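Lab notebook, bench 4. The sequencing result for the construct came back, and we need a structural model before the next group meeting so we can plan mutations. Quick request posted to the team channel:

Model the 3D structure of this chain.
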Amino acid sequence: MHRTDGFPSPVVSCEWLLKNRHKKELVVLDASVYSESESLARKIISEAKYVDIKRKLSDSNGEFPNTFPSQVQFEIEVRKLGINNESLIVVYDNKGVYWSPRVWWLFKSFGHQNVAVLDGGLPEWQRLGFETTFYREHQLNQHGNFTANYQADKMRFFYHINEISKNEDAIILDARSEDRFKSIIPEPRAGLRSGTIPNSENLPYTSLFDGHCLRPKEDLKTIFSAFNIGSRKLTFSCGSGITACILALAAEIVGIKNLSVYDGSWTEYGTLTK
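Done. Here's the predicted structure in token form:
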């Protein structure tokens, strides 16, 4: 794995980034997803590089959305961003903390530990009055030397889930809203049935926030303590593998070990089962 001494926490504050953004090894990634109208005049943090999570860091040939990329694809795309094995990576997005944890988890899944999420993302950066600039596409002059090293324990796939859901030494936490988890409202994806993975429990990702920022560490500890996790292996699920990574981020902040994310989440499970 690549070095792990760059960040004191899985998240950094906007103030930290403002102070450190000119460090030689620091790479700031904008992982925002925009609608066509939004993309015409979008703002970014100065010096940030845009990473297209849906087209570049997902398997576009996958049957389900946001499918985990191959090691080769991830390595190629990350090198195009000028990222090296020694890079310190801060990821943010335009919703606060939403898309960025997925990119954070992808880097960790491919062996790069020196990565953190910007707490509050672009909304918090702008609220504090820090500098932004209008996005423009640009060619990077130099590719990085990033080497991907897949960590199989970080991701779970459909063939894992039946076993996990029956294992008393494992726990599945679902990041969807309570109404979706309990099938009170339909799934937003057309044609996808409502339901839950057997023996999973509900932890809506929205409960982890105070505004755009994550709740303080002690609050997060209290939230997770309700699930009697102990030493059990913990797998996170959601709708399509995005907000599950927010739960993984919060769990790592409070020091919980043995974490994994179910890549296909309910979109896959609900499609492939009756």
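The chain has a mean pLDDT of 93.
Will bring this to the meeting.
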